[in-house]
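Anyone up for a design puzzle?
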């Protein structure tokens, strides 16, 4: 099922999942694929055909739609394929050149990627290119746009506030990095305000798209993206959790959680800890030793009786 979604003024995808961390993540993944921060080949390297089809185990009609359109198999036939067989079929089609990574990623809906793939693995894919370390001109320009988009969509999806960003970056630091012309515009805007000049007003005068041109990308990443977005909203594993790459569940509320099998309880006897027959098996030596001990006791008792009779 193809879901209704929208586009921003710049043409970026807007999730139909509603405002929140799921919608934000769906939008970020789609954006990084659209602008070339990550490619369809990168996506399939992280999420194989088999992994995609297994992720859609609860969506047979969606699997059938993808298989049918990409391989030519009739949809009614594709609907009968198991997730494992669907993955094999799609992989064969890819290996034989019947379909392409780009086509597979296109048909795997952005919101479904977010719903059914492991969120930690998906975020690891989103940032695999390490945009905060971009050095050459082309990749740095793309990284600036990418980080600005992440910050803008995080604010739009209510993951972070204007106050959070300004507090994390520090007004003194910002004043040192922003050019005098931009600082002049900020001062002018503050003077025109009849009430308090807020952090929202500051970021309206110097939005993320402007900040990335003046503030070091690694500083923005370390102060805003990692602590306020990735860690705060569970896009990265917490200390002690399994790291991306392991087969761990990653969906939120939209994906049914699997039941953890309970450990069978040990059956206890009503009469306490009784010893079973298997636990009292004795060796031949133990049997002989036991018989000898018993015989010695009987002989000793008999001798004692005889002595008493003689004394009497």
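Challenge accepted. My sequence:
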């Amino acid at each position: 099922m193809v879901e209704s979604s929208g586009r921003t003024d710049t043409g970026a995808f807007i999730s139909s999942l509603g405002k929140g961390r799921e919608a934000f993540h769906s939008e970020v993944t789609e954006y990084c694929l659209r602008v070339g921060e990550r490619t369809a080949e990168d996506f399939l390297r992280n999420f194989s055909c088999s992994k995609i089809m297994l992720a859609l185990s609860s969506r047979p009609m969606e699997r059938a739609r993808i298989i049918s359109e990409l391989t030519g198999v009739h949809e009614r036939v594709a609907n009968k394929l198991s997730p494992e067989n669907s993955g094999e079929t799609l992989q064969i089609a890819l290996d034989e050149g019947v379909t392409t990574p780009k086509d597979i990623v296109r048909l795997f809906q952005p919101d479904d990627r977010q719903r059914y793939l492991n969120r930690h693995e998906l975020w690891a894919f989103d940032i695999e290119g390490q945009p905060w370390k971009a050095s050459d001109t082309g990749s740095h320009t793309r990284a600036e746009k990418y980080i600005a988009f992440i910050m803008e969509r995080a604010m739009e999806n209510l993951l972070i506030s204007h106050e959070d960003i300004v507090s994390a970056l520090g007004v003194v630091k910002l004043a040192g990095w922003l050019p005098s012309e931009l600082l002049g515009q900020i001062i002018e805007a503050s003077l025109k305000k009849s009430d308090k000049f807020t952090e929202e007003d500051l970021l309206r005068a110097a939005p993320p798209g402007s900040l990335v041109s003046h503030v070091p990308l690694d500083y923005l990443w370390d102060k805003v993206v990692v602590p306020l977005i990735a860690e705060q909203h569970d896009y990265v594993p917490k200390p002690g959790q399994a790291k991306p790459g392991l087969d761990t569940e990653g969906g939120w509320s939209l994906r049914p959680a699997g039941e953890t099998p309970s450990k069978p309880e040990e059956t206890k006897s009503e009469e306490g800890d009784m010893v079973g027959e298997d636990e009292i098996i004795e060796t031949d030596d133990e049997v002989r030793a036991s018989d000898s001990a018993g015989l010695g006791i009987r002989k000793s008792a008999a001798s004692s009786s005889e002595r008493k009779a003689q004394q009497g």
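A detail worth pointing out: The beta strands are 6-7, 13-14.
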